[in-house]
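tool_log.txt
---
The assistant was asked to compare two proteins side by side. It first ran the structure predictor on the initial sequence, then on the second. Raw inputs and outputs are pasted verbatim so the downstream comparison step can read them without reformatting.
(1)
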Amino acid sequence: MCFKKSILFLFSFLPASIFVCAQNARFSQIGTISPLLNPSLTGRFDGKARLTNLWGWYNSNNPQVGYAQTQHQDLGFDIKIGKYRSSGDDPSNPNNVNESAKDETLKSKKQNGYWAAGINYYHYGGSKSPIEASFISISAARHFYNKSNKFYGFGVQLTSATGKLDRSKGTQYDREISGGGFPYRPEILKEDTTLKSKKTYTDFNIGGYYGLITDPILFEMGFSLSHLFYPVFDLYNDKDHPKLRHRVTAYSNLRLKLNNKWGLVEKNVYWREGLYYRSKTDHITDTVEWDAPFESFWAGVEFYKVNPKSNINLNFGINSRSFRTLMPYLNLNVGKYVDLRYSYEMPLNSNRFRAYSAKRNEIGLVLSYGRNTSRATNFYKKINF
């Protein structure tokens, strides 16, 4: 597909994506823990294995709920299964566009992709927040390269979620900075200031992606569906057994060739929480505020030095959440092994959007094993960037 057709395809997709409901992306650094964004992204990286760790410190001062703060931590590990060769990440063949779109299995067999598996632990909570939760997920993905310049994949994810409610800790809660999964019901906690409970449920998520690569661009889009079977999340001994409704994620990535020194990556994520695909009478109603649908989108651009001469490079970007926040972003790449990332998200215009006052500090660390090249080397040839 030529460059002009690819750009036309991109912009025909983006307007429609605004109406696609998607996951509530709590993190600022959405791409650091990519299997949480979409389980099919498990194993989508340059190398054999990677270890990711993301720390977040959030606070808000929403006039509707008051001051709140919470901490987030996510630890993930994913690995490619079997023998493979990332041709596009191999400097021995940097000019072959057809080869650059392949992550290959054994040469003696049809070269059409690979399997990957991953495990993830995520926890959020605050010293004065009544709710804290932990999520342990395992995921598997299959990646395909049936044509020289096209790629796609599918993934599944199983999650065990555990939530703890302790009203005596306080009432500092704002769902803008929470991790979700266990909604807050202040009307119940006002009546019972000593309420404590614990709940565990099992969740299922699925996802897929499709993309294409040419010499000037790489374009990719994907969708995922969470809470596949409406798990019961009740922390309040509710006789109606409220259930979590679907979350659906839509994302797109565009990598552009700017010049011989710099390249650009543009990302978009659209989400909405609270979807019914069966009768609403099977679940809880929308009459309570804490269960109201929640939607927004995340967008940003990142700039990378192309084929850097040094093993230590600093790249940068800027992102926004619904154009209500601004997120400066720095990425320090150390050779083939280490990516250290920092971002700070702040309200863009809190005077106009008084209900939105979330501030997020995040530090991400990605350790890679078996990577063929440093982060931006052969920038325009990489499919697993």
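(2)
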Amino acid sequence: MSHGAYAITTDSESGKKLFVENACPGDVLDLEIYDERKDFSFAHIKEVIIESDLREGNPKCKLHKICGSCQWQHVKYTEQLNFKKKNLIDLFNQNQVDLSQIGDPDENISITGLEDPWHYRNKVIYPVSSVKTTGRVIAGYYKRKSNELINIKYCPIQYSIFDEIIDRLKELCTEYEIADPLLRHMLLRASFDQSEVLISFIVRGKLLDDNQRKAIENIFKKIYSEYEQIKVCTLNINDDSTNVILGPETELIAGKRDFIYDLIKNVKVKISTSSFFQINNKQFCNILDAFEKYVVEIKPKKVLDAYAGLGSISLNLAKALPETSFDAFEINSPAVADALENIKQNDLINLNFEEASAEQYFQSNEREFDLVILNPPRKGCTNKVLDALMKRKELKNIFYLSCNPATLARDIKYLEKNSDFRVKSVKAFDMFPHSFHLETLVQLYKS
């Protein structure tokens, strides 16, 4: 399996690698090449001649072959974990990351899966469209490598409460004629026990007139009254034609507050429409356990939580280590507002939170820390940020939590090449079962 949606085989005649969707290592297949490149090609499955023993015989979702959300649901879950770990080690080796301090990577890099790898997503964002002939509103995920929308009625990886609510929202949007191009996305997020649900419509503000606003208000009033779990209904305005889904302006339409509460390990957190929050609560708690174990062993005096989101990591650590001083920063304004409120409601006096980009923070701040936590977006850290870390004389440990093994390996290699930081431990966590994605926690120390 590649670090992507494909399984890989080799064309015996040309020696080229063939990338094949919905294939599984061990399959015997009749393939048809549809896209030939200089060094590799893409192929379709014409027929499965012999199924691999590693195949999942009865995938839960019948749309998994075409939906862009799950790429590996046709592979047995235990094997998914094995392939993810192998891909992680391969990416480290390709980037020549020095793993000598941890011994044999196959033995000493662990991967934590889920006992039940279903219904784990606490947040979904569905693009919206409509059937031109009937006006019926549909919502779901895009078909792989296309702009064709698949109308999702049941998704086994998201919280079960979402299926029913989204189906009802589609009915109401059809009734009130709220669809694309005005309505771009439906967003739902929920607490772990599914007792609190937040709904948001992301719309084009320049297309929103008074009648449409009134229609959206009526939709939210109805859905709010029908489900006791729904605590918040918001309207988000985004007129930008980019891949950024949420716009800067969010308005509360129904509900007594514009956020939901959730319990993440030992802290109560406030989560609003635009806040970044990990989508898999169970697995994130496993990551927090690992953080706490490592940090308690180190006993740092001053800790920096970079790219902190709404502060879930530093909130838990600050509660566990009351004698340690914590600083954190985040560029997303709503997340910072949530973090400041979370600090207050958890009575934490040892955590300071600021709004800043990573580059801004390190450019304007020369404070020393003996431990830095990095949790950047998929693109990883810039060299400017890594250079600023390497200049910190007191910095002895870096914990790097990444959702992208490729940029993680790249950044670690940069640190190894330009400083005395070396990898001390690697732990992988299957945050996104049935996809190729992987969350990885790396501890680096100054040798």
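---
observation on (2): DSSP finds ten helices and 21 strands in the chain. Residues 131 and 137 are 7 Å apart (CA to CA).
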